[in-house]
C-alpha cells in the first residue's frame, strides 16, 4: 500500500482535495499550480511549501487514491464470506460503487497516459497499484485452489481494467457485471 503520508495541515489537505478533483476531471497537464492555489484559497508559496512541486502533489493525489482503493477492497474482503470464489470476485464487486462518481474512467490509467517518465513518482504509484491488484488476484486464486494462478490473475486484471474503460468510454453500465461473469466462468474452469 502507498505509505501513509505525514499528517497534513488543514491548508495542505485543502490543496490535495482541490488538486485531486482538478487532476481527475480536467487532467494533470491541463491544471497548473496557479489554478490549484486559487481554487484552494492558498498562495502558490503555500502549495510549494507543503508539497515541494507539482510532481509531488500529483504523487500525493495518486497515493491518496491508491490508499482509498486498497482500503475499499481490503474492507470488503474482510467482510466477505469465506467462500474462495466469492473472495476472488471482490475486486469486481466493489467496482460499481467506485465507478459511480468516476465518469472519466480510471484515474490511475488517466495519470499513466499523462506521465511518460518512468521515474515520475506518480507513475510509480500507478504501476504499483496495478501490480498490487494483480498480486491480490493471484493470492486469492491460490487460496481458491485455482490452476495456473499467474495466468488467471493476469486475465482477471485485464477483465477488471477493461470493465472500467468500457464503463467510462462506452457508457456501458453492464460492463462490470459482464466482466464479473466472465471472471466467474474463468475461475470455475480453473478450479478442480
UniProtKB/TrEMBL annotation:
Pfam families recorded: TetR_N
Domain (HTH tetR-type) ranges: 9-69
UniProt cross-references to Gene3D superfamilies, sorted A to Z: Tetracycline Repressor, domain 2
Alphabetical keyword list: DNA-binding, Transcription, Transcription regulation
Stated name of the protein: Transcriptional regulator, TetR family
Keyword Transcription appears in the UniProt entry: yes
GO molecular function: DNA binding
Signal sequence range: none
DNA-binding region: 32-51
UniProt KW rRNA-binding keyword: no
Species in which this protein is naturally found: Pseudonocardia ammonioxydans
InterPro entries: Homeodomain-like_sf, HTH_TetR, Tet_transcr_reg_TetR-rel_C_sf
PROSITE patterns: HTH_TETR_2
Amino acid at each position: 500500500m502507498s505509505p501513509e503520508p505525514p499528517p497534513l495541515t488543514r491548508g495542505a489537505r485543502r490543496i490535495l482535495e482541490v488538486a485531486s478533483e482538478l487532476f481527475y476531471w480536467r487532467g494533470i497537464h491541463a491544471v497548473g499550480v496557479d489554478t490549484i492555489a486559487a481554487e484552494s484559497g492558498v498562495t502558490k508559496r503555500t502549495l510549494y511549501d507543503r508539497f515541494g512541486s507539482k510532481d509531488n502533489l500529483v504523487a500525493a493525489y495518486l497515493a491518496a487514491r491508491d490508499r482509498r482503493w486498497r482500503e475499499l477492497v481490503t474492507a470488503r474482503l474482510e467482510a466477505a464470506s469465506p467462500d474462495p470464489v466469492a473472495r476472488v470476485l471482490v475486486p469486481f464487486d466493489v467496482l460499481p460503487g467506485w465507478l459511480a462518481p468516476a465518469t472519466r474512467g480510471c484515474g490511475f490509467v488517466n495519470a499513466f497516459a499523462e506521465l511518460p517518465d518512468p521515474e515520475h513518482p506518480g507513475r510509480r504509484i500507478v504501476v504499483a497499484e496495478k501490480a498490487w491488484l494483480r498480486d491480490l488476484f493471484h493470492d486469492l486464486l491460490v487460496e481458491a485452489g485455482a490452476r495456473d494462478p499467474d495466468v488467471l490473475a493476469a486475465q482477471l486484471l485485464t477483465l477488471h481494467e477493461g470493465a472500467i474503460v468500457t464503463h467510462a468510454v462506452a457508457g456501458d453500465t453492464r460492463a462490470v457485471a459482464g466482466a464479473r461473469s466472465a471472471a466467474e466462468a474463468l475461475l470455475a474452469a480453473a478450479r478442480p
